[in-house]
Amino acid sequence: TRNLTLYIGNSDNSLTIGQGGAGGDNQGAQSFKLSRSYTVTAADLQLREFLGSPGNMTITVETDSSNVPSGTLVDASSAAAAILQGSISAGYSFVRATFSGGFVLDAGTSYWLRARVTTSAVNNAYSWGRDSVTATYPDGNAAGQLGGIWTKFPSDDANFTILGYEASSQYESWLYVNTDNFVTWRLSSSG
Questions:
Q1: At CA 179, angle to CA 84 and CA 2, rounded to 5?
Q2: DSSP string, 123-170
Q3: Of 123, 55, 58, 115, which Cα lies nearest the Cα of 85?
Q4: How many whole angstroms separate alpha carbon 19 and alpha carbon 16?
Q5: Which residues have C-beta within 8 Å of that of residue 172, sequence separation ≥ 6?
Q6: Per-residue pLDDT tens for 45-87?
Q7: pTM for this structure?
């Protein structure tokens, strides 16, 4: 399994996941595209505890609808995963959501990585690290939902990684972008 696409920038802002101080059902999402058809097996999100005890987080990969998540999973049986509350700490760190069985995503198509919790209590939330100053990820942007209404952040990117392997080749390729925006390509035989 390799990094297929990712963005790691400054965490100068965040997406609130759960019930923030003002209440409401906050959700966060990041759109992305892949350069080739890949089988996706996991996603890493830069998360931290923000308020209270929001419970487990649900991570989904969804289709696009007018530049926001559609609510439709790309694969009904495997495009959802849980991140357990105990795996998210008080400081920002990357936390993995593993998709059971994996699923294939097509090249050049916009998809959404979406995060939510099902708490109903105010002041129970996580933060997903978001870069709103130097964001440079070219194939997507962040969005947040409050009370069922999505707000697009076209100049912002949430910090994330999509992991998997190339679906149609014996070769694996991956892209790594670090905080200084250097890009490294690697091509290697997997068999």
A1: 60
A2: SEEEEEEEESSS---TT--EEEEETTEEEEETT-EE-EEEEEEESS-S
A3: 55
A4: 8
A5: 2, 165, 166, 187, 188, 190
A6: 999 998 888 889 999 999 999 999 999 999 999 999 999 999 9
A7: 0.83
